[in-house]
Amino acid sequence: MPNNNLTKADIQKENFKMALGVFLRTILSAVLCFFVYMSLSVLFNGFFTHDIGYQIYETTSDGSVALIEEHYYADDSSAPSSTPQAPWARGSASRPSVPPCPWARKSR
User: What is the rounded distance in angstroms from the CA atom of residue 98 to the CA atom of residue 54?
Assistant: First the structure.
């Protein structure tokens, strides 16, 4: 048999407790979803990233964007493996030297 002697203050207390519980569970689920998302992102990036390196682009005076240099780091070598450059960039003596990417993966 239900207790019908509840006052308005008791009902408000119960509603507040229930709302607080739902809110805290929502926050907890958001934190857990963030960790799941980050974990899956790291896994998928690890599985599907084959080439690590950098590309250097230059904006010319007419507003077009041109590829200047492109380097990829191979897993089996500590030296960067250069990819073929664009035909217009070959032989350019004025091209600045670029240091290797500091955050690239080192081979073991």
Answer: 10
Q: Measured between alpha carbons, how far is 37 from 79 in angstroms, rounded to an integer?
A: 33
Per the document, the length of the chain is 108
Q: Look at the block and give the residue holding tokens 């019908």.
A: 4
pTM of the full structure: 0.45
Render pLDDT for 7-36 as a digit per residue (tens, 0 to 9): 999 999 999 999 999 999 999 999 999 999
> Does residue 52 contact residue 105 with C-beta atoms inside 8 Å?
yes
User: What distance in Å separates the CA atoms of residue 10 and residue 13, rounded to the nearest whole number?
Assistant: 5
Pairwise CA distance, residues 70 & 106, whole Å: 18
CB 100 within 8 A of CB 80: yes
Q: Which segments within 45-93 are labelled E, that is strand?
A: 52-59, 65-73, 80-82
